[in-house]
Design brief:
Elements lengths: L2 H27 L3 H6 L1 E8 L5 E3 H12 L2 E14 L8 E14 L6 E16 L2 E17 L24 H5 L9
Parallel strand pairs: 1-6
Antiparallel strand pairs: 1-2, 3-4, 4-5, 5-6
Protein name: SnoaL-like protein
Length: 184
Amino acid sequence: MTTTSAKLQRLIDKDEITELVHAYCNAADRQDHEKMRALYHEDATDDHGAFFKGLAIEFIDRLPEIQAPMQILHHNVTTLNIKFPNSAICEHAEGEVYILAFHQIATDDGPMDLLIGGRYFDRYQKRDGKWKFAHRSVVADWANLHPQSQVNLDNDIIRGSLIGQPGADDPSYAFYQLFQRGQR
């Protein structure tokens, strides 16, 4: 492979990994567990701290329980650092992904807000021409907790707007033809 060809392939690989990372955020926020499964290799591992540590597929199996009290999920990728080995053909890469993740969580005392600034430590592998997660760890760098939610979706300024929500009832599924549940 020529230097130009190698650089072009590296850009293609980086773009595919970037799409993978963004698809994860969409799957998490829409609670689309079928889509989430499609993002990991079958033997991939996941480390979500106290929530879970083990095979990613087992983590995804537990997501309905973990996400049940979450009324709003909103993951935002801010900085994406992807590194490849110094070889012409790459079938693995590593990523440090900075995120801001907002969670509105139902509690017995009413909804609370949690905004987390953190990072994902990722390992990606390309198998059968497809990049997927081989491992993902979650690292919290800071957290902002409000025991009483600051979210106000009844405010006049947004009254009448479409309101996003986890699950199949999110307005995006009625709008888009190309973005469908369960599909990467």
